[in-house]
């Protein structure tokens, strides 16, 4: 099964993508996580991405598209994957469609996690991330067992650099300008599923499973 997650920054794409990956035994591929891992390891790709990410801007398509297409041609993607944070622009979506078409493949579902902007800002301020393993928490809605410590790997949790309120506002503007048109793009392709992302995160997942099948 090949799945794309759509939705505003902080809508809960990563949270749901991890649950989908676990239930359906497919890899969770987050372009944001790949960029953050590269920043942490000080790679050239990381240096390039950081300047854009810290300003709430998108990393240029020429950097992002090649990286993602490489990742999905790896062996563990043969049975499918859940893409989180890609595509984010029409050129990215078109490149993905074309690359898959060349192999006689296509995306099965584009899941749009719908959350209004007002709710996003509150969520981001409470998000805590583990930069070691990529796990995410929320101080109220999805708290770790021990304050500020990752349940998965035991590392400390941080507020992401781009989760500061002024940067969140910029990311929302970029989302409306460049990413929201993808809802229409996948609607026209007939594979769009919209779920109400303001519900409890387990209820959001139930709604997704009711579409993907148990
Ligand atoms: P990325 O890491 O993809 O960030 P994003 O899309 O802005 O998404 P987030 O990770 O912020 O949010 P999410 O929707 O995954 O929400 P989460 O599940 O964590 O990208 C970061 C940057 O990298 C971009 O700005 C860009 O610069 C660059 N980039 C990445 N991909 C790119 C691309 N393709 N092209 C160009 N540039 C790219 O949930 C948020 C919080 O809410 C958490 O605390 C969570 O616990 C909580 N929560 C989740 N669900 C619920 C719920 N139902 N109720 C209450 N709380 C909830
Ligand atoms: Zn961790």
Which strand order does the major sheet show?
Answer: 2-3-1-4-7
SSE order, as H and E? EHEHHHEHEHEEHHEH
Bound molecules: BIS(adenosine)-5'-pentaphosphate, zinc ion
**How does the overall form come out from the CA principal axes?**
globular
* Uncertain spans: none
Structural class comes to alpha/beta
Assembly context of the chains: single chain
Proportion of helical residues:
40-55%
Secondary structure tally, helices? 9
Strand content: 5-15%
At a glance:
By secondary structure, this protein is an alpha/beta fold. The protein has helices spanning 13-24, 31-40, 44-54, 61-72, 90-102, 117-126, 165-179, 181-188, 201-212, and strands at 2-6, 28-30, 81-84, 109-114, 127-129, 136-138, 192-196. It is globular and about 45 Å long.
SSE inventory with pairings:
Elements lengths: L1 E5 L6 H12 L3 E3 H10 L3 H11 L6 H12 L8 E4 L5 H13 L6 E6 L2 H10 E3 L6 E3 L26 H15 L1 H8 L3 E5 L4 H12 L2
Parallel strand pairs: 1-3, 1-4, 2-3, 4-7
Antiparallel strand pairs: 5-6
Helix pairs in contact: 1-9, 2-3, 4-5, 6-7
The site of BIS(adenosine)-5'-pentaphosphate has 38 residues, from helix 1, helix 2, helix 3, helix 6 and strand 6.
For this entry, give a set of tags:
214 residues; alpha/beta; five-stranded parallel β-sheet; two-stranded antiparallel ribbon; 9 helices; binds BIS(adenosine)-5'-pentaphosphate; binds zinc ion; transferase; zinc; cytoplasm
